[in-house]
Amino acid sequence: MASPSDELKRARSELISLFSAGEVSESFQENCTEVMDYYFRRSVQESDTGQRLFRDKRPFALVALGGYGRRDLCIHSDIDVLILFDSRVPSSAKKLAEDVFYPLWNLGLDLGHAIRGIKDCLSLAVENLEALTSLMDARFICGDSPLYLALMERLEKKILPKKRLTLGRWLEEQNQIRMDVFGDASCLLEPNLKEGIGGLRDYHHLLWLAKAFFRLRTPKDLEYSGLLSQKEYADLESHLKFIHLVRNHLHRESARKNDRLTFDHQESIAQALAFKDQDSFLAVEQFLGQIHASMAAIKSLRHSFVFTHFPGSRKNGNGTGASESLRAPFHMDQGEIHFPSATAILTDPLLLLDIFLEGVKAGCPLSLESKRLVREFLYLVDETCRTSERAARCFLSILNAPNASDALVQMLETGLLCAFIPEFEPIQDRVQFDHYHLFPVGRHLVQSVRQLKTLPQERDILLADIFLDLLDPEPLFLAALFHDIGKTGKDHAAKGAGLARKILKRFGYDRKKMEDVCFLVHRHLLLAETASRRDLNDEKIVVQCAGTVGTVDRLKMLYLLSWADGKATGPRAWNDWIANLVLELFLKILHILEKGELATPDASKRMKLSIQEVRNRIGDRLSPADQESMFDGMPPNYLIETSPRAIVRHLTLYATLREAWAKGFKNAFCLEAEAAPSSGTYEVTFLAGDRAGLFSHVAGVMALNNINILSARIYTWRDGTAVDILTVTPPLDPLHPEEIWEKIKGDLAGTFEGRLCLTKRLQQKAEPSILSPRKTPIRQTCVNVDNESSDFFTLIEVFADDRIGLLYRITHTLFTLGMNIRVAKIATKADQIADVFYVLDLEGQKVMEQAKTEEIKDVLLRELSKG
Amino acid sequence: MKKVEAIIKPFKLDDVKESLSALGVKGLTVTEVKGFGRQRGHREVYRGAEYQVDFVSKIKIEVVLEDELVSDAVRVIQEKAKTGQIGDGKIFILSVENAIRIRTGEMGKEAI
């Protein structure tokens, strides 16, 4: 016959290979324990020393401790065994230990062993609480059973009554330590199955408390004693089974005792557990969802067990004295809310929702019994409940309360949230298999609401200010709770908006506010995505965002939602780095919405229509890709202020210019003049490659030829093409205008090639003559430099009396000051001008230093006051 | 062997990454960084109150290359990361003594 250790080896490897083949799964711990027990019984029997000790009347018992005592042996669990003697440990015990234990080390098992008398065991348990808990799980294996019984009796009668309060406190401390070290496993991406909060340790704690305070012997007693209901115990068992199963797979894969379910194991374990990909819901995501759900259930059970049976352990006596303020029919007992009776719920099922509202109002949780009742009566929440006005009102009151998230967590745990809003069902435990999302979706949504509720106390005062500025934050809370509700497939934001609409319609919710919620859900990624992927210095991008957002109030809510969503997702999704970018985008959109005419829904619609018409007119004269890049490079105000017909004309001129540039004629330009008979003016279109001072050349040449610029719009396309559209007075000689325009073209070419010096020629022209009457200024020249109105440009406004060459003088001065004019709006009323220039410095930046803005003002004023 | 470090605008990352891959660069490291150069921080105004933003968010790319690839890599980074405006970033080139691939122990050229 094989030796006990050979047989153990064979039995274990058989068991493990059966497990790997998926044949023993749920009974593995039990089987593993039996195999070990069998080994110990045989090895004691076959040990000569062991038999001699019995003959010498030195009886001993083999006792399993800890997890082995609880029959919870996973593949690589420690095996803790005690050889127990009555009092003094005889010297030959060493030989016994060699016989029994050495073979186990040779097999590579993790063995924890001790050889002690009863008294030593007990005094160790008094000194060391860890030893105490290990002893509480003790189980007799073989040898002299009266010894074991004597040990347990003295433990129960002498030690536990004295030590149990200390034990209770110590377990609470351990919990805190576990939270700090391992975190809340029910929502971690790589949960620790044993030590994490919600892990097996929670169950052990519960068991130890029950043993210490209620003299329970086995886990089954939790149900017999009525400490847990039948359903709770059944749930606990099934969750434990699942976690143990996962833990065994994890041990098998890691080939060592490893309790942290790291990324590299998750996919293969999901596969081993026969999870299958469904649509876009990965097997591994379903698997993690189930693990999290099990761990959350265990955590919640332990929590309410402690809360119910150990009121002394509560840290805050939050609910004291609130009992009177509690609305009937609920009542308060020891800081917890209770239903009046089960029958009351049967008559009025909406009490199931009301109790949570009372809870947030009083700042107290539901009692374990109340939660039990909520779970048992979930079937009462039917379509009539869900569409009732009272229910909707109650739900919104909960959501608007400052501590709403406490109630929402409890509603999620008890299943009420899913019962009341069935759209939560498919996503509540959904986990995303990436390094980004820390929480399952349901938890993430509640967490987002919790983040928003902290805003009034937020250290970043800007965020707090924005929140306090909101007229009505309710749509924001609803959007936070619903923003990922569409996470069952692709394009979850759009899908979520649809679901949110459905839910809110059922609530009979206010129409306008419903639109806000749907908008927020639909666009909840807009700011973060734009901020990290697009050029925030590109006015058009920001204008497009502003057009999408539409109103300042929506923008504020969207910004806060982005923040809360990011914070609730995890540190990789939200940090100072992304916060900076999103803030920049938020403020730029805000300024456009508050000041600009570019972002009105009307403007963005006009832009779209205009582009469409230009496309139709151009047809296939330009490839779609070329068209796209052209439209992309046109500034928003150009698209809004220019007719489609004119844009087509510009594109045609541009095509000829581009050919000329390609041939090396860098100075090539286009000038077209068209009479506008109704107003007696001319419209001049001018295209050229942008260069420093370009517009001043145009203005100068016009002045030189006695043409006064009445108004002008000048734009720069992104590729550096300048497009100027001028309304001008007609040439002095109305009979031969073409000659004048030809001369102007010649002068312009001369200027560009450096053959003609405008300053000098204009000076000669302006020399006082008896023929040119001198007007006395009626109005003082005025210059403003404005950095507030636009995030992209510095605005320079000039008000002055009009005169020939004035525009040249202004633009030339700006050129000498190193200003690049990107957009100009020139307007003349009677004989006064009001010009606005959108400028950037030579590095493409706004002019922010005060010294420089002062200089611009001074120099312009000085230049303009010269006769 | 040289290490090329580039600080660029976040939205330029994809362009730069793609063109470096096209050059045959086999791997690079990307970090989200904050800092300031001539752009400094900036001051934001919301409803009259001022909020100072000290650092600007940028992306740092690090890539170790054979000497022959360096000039091309620098050229494409500069091309792709340029918007012509302030805050486009900087490129640094550093000498690298050696490189070791941890898995295999390969050294030098083979390891990059």
Helix and strand layout, with pairings?
The complex is a heterodimer of chains A (867) and B (112).
Chain A: H1 4-20, H2 28-46, H3 48-55, E1 60-65, H4 66-69, E2 79-85, H5 93-106, E3 111-117, H6 118-127, H7 129-136, E4 139-143, H8 145-182, H9 200-214, H10 221-224, H11 230-254, H12 263-272, H13 283-309, E5 331-333, E6 336-338, H14 342-347, H15 351-362, H16 368-376, H17 383-386, H18 389-400, H19 404-414, H20 416-420, H21 441-453, H22 461-469, H23 474-482, H24 492-507, H25 511-522, H26 526-533, H27 539-549, H28 552-569, H29 576-595, H30 601-618, H31 624-633, H32 636-641, H33 644-662, E7 669-676, E8 681-689, H34 694-704, E9 709-716, E10 721-728, H35 737-753, H36 758-766, E11 782-786, E12 794-801, H37 806-816, E13 819-829, E14 832-841, H38 850-865
Parallel strand pairs in A: 2-3
Antiparallel strand pairs in A: 1-2, 1-4, 5-6, 7-8, 8-10, 9-10, 9-13, 11-12, 12-14, 13-14
Chain B: E1 2-8, H1 13-23, E2 29-35, E3 42-46, E4 49-53, E5 56-65, H2 67-81, E6 90-95
Antiparallel strand pairs in B: 1-5, 1-6, 2-5, 3-4
Structural write-up:
The complex is a heterodimer of chains A (867) and B (112). Chain A is α+β, with helices and mostly antiparallel strands. Chain A has five domains: 4-170, Beta Polymerase, domain 2, CATH 3.30.460.10; 183-308, Nucleotidyltransferases  domain 2 (Four Helix Bundle (Hemerythrin (Met), subunit A), Up-down Bundle), CATH 1.20.120; 316-420, Hydrophobic Seed Protein (Orthogonal Bundle); 448-599, no CATH class; 667-767 and 778-865, no CATH class. Chain A is 57% helix and 11% strand. Chain A is built from 38 helices and 14 strands. In chain A, the strands form three sheets. In chain A, strands 7-8-10-9-13-14-12-11 form an eight-stranded antiparallel beta sheet, with helices on both faces. In chain A, helix 6 crosses helix 7, helix 12 packs across helix 13 (283-309) and helix 37 (806-816) packs antiparallel against helix 38. The longest helix of chain A has 38 residues, at 145-182. Chain A is elongated. The termini of chain A are far apart. With 112 residues, chain B is of the alpha+beta class. Chain B has one domain (2-111): Alpha-Beta Plaits. Helices cover 23% and strands 36% of the residues of chain B. Chain B has helices at residues 13-23, 67-81; strands at residues 2-8, 29-35, 42-46, 49-53, 56-65, 90-95. In chain B, the strands form two sheets. Chain B has a four-stranded antiparallel beta sheet, covered by helices on one side. The radius of gyration of chain B is 17 Å and the shape is elongated. Chain B starts with a strand and ends in a 17-residue tail after the last strand. The chains are: A alpha+beta (867), B alpha+beta (112).
